[in-house]
Amino acid sequence: MPHHHDHDCSHEHDHDHDDHDMLSTGAQDNLYQYIDRANVVTLNADDNCKGSDVIKPWHERTSEEKFVESDADDQLIIRIPFTGSVKLRSILLKTGPADMTPSKVLLFANEDNLDFQDVADKKSTQEFDVAQGREVGEYAVKAAKFPNVSSLTLFFPSSQGAETVRIYYVGLLGTWTERKSNPIITVYEAQANLADHKKIQGTEGNFSTFQS
């Protein structure tokens, strides 16, 4: 049966070459486990592609089995939320092949719900030219610009010649910390006095109990 690629966002063949420690300490600083994969959003992606498909664990970074490809033209937006606060050090990209490689990537920190109109009007936090090649490329960001990132939006504005762009892998390196915000309810609970609760016992009136 002839093998053809029909925009199904998956490949049959398997690449099992591992580029040995190609990236400095990537496995340790990989933020994969801190990405809220269920809420990764793509705009202008082919219907059969899921944005979370390119957010792969470290050992699958060279795999070409799953990818995201743009749909109507060669522009693509991928929004990646984190489960905490991230100090970003670099992004990793595997794209292509050849002229399906994006010309560049624009990064927007903490800009939720950007669409194509927004990214055209806004100044990106940082941008990079994307190199062609089948390996994973590392792009080191200016850490001072990404000290406290809760979501990262990647905008790929054009391809290097093809009608669509294709992304196999997006990886993020850096350090993660828990968000330091206490929901207000815990403040009330902390100040509640047991004596107050006792007074209400047995009264039939319409009082409000503590909601937690």
TrEMBL record:
Superkingdom per UniProt: Eukaryota
Annotated protein name in UniProt: Galactose-binding domain-like protein
InterPro entries: Galactose-bd-like_sf, PITH1-like, PITH_dom, PITH_dom_sf
PROSITE patterns in the record: PITH
Pfam families: PITH
Record family assignment: Belongs to the PITHD1 family.
Renumbered residue ranges of the record's region Disordered: 1-23
Sequence ranges assigned to domain PITH in this UniProt record: 20-192
Biased composition regions of type Basic and acidic residues, renumbered to the chain: 1-22
Organism lineage: Eukaryota, Fungi, Dikarya, Basidiomycota, Agaricomycotina
GO CC annotations on file: cytoplasm; nucleus
